[in-house]
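Support request, priority: normal
Reporter: lab tech (M.K.)
Component: structure prediction queue

Hi team, I submitted a job for DNA-binding transcriptional regulator YhcF, GntR family from Lentzea albidocapillata yesterday, and the status page still shows it as pending. I've pasted the exact input below so you can check whether something in the sequence is tripping the parser. The sequence length should be 117 residues. Please let me know if I need to resubmit or if it's stuck on your end.
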Amino acid sequence: MVKIDHQGETPPYEQVRVHYAHAISNRELPVGAKLPTVRALAKDLGLAVNTVARAYRELEEAGLVETRGRAGTVVSANGDSNRERVRAAAAQYAAMSAELGLSSQEAMEIVRAALRA
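Reply from support: The job had stalled in the queue. We restarted it manually and it finished. Here are the results:
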């Protein structure tokens, strides 16, 4: 179950998005698993419907879920292919970093900076 920290600095929609993104990437939610409806989750969490809808929209844009109209929102099989694309990009980045003479530490600092941005 999602826990919302209403006093925290992270916006509620982002807390919902991160919760489901982690659950999907850790395979706690398998491909095809149905997410609660936007309205039901908003009610359970005490959030506005638009807040949950934004989180779901961002999950869909990332390819982690897909909305099937009246059938609801389900975990997409694209999540696995997206993970593979990221692994391939990381391997390419590692090779380029080595080719350009960057140390592992320098390369990781660049990645950390990019993730913070």
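DSSP finds five helices and two strands in the chain. Strands lie at 65-67, 73-75. Let us know if anything else looks off. Ticket resolved.
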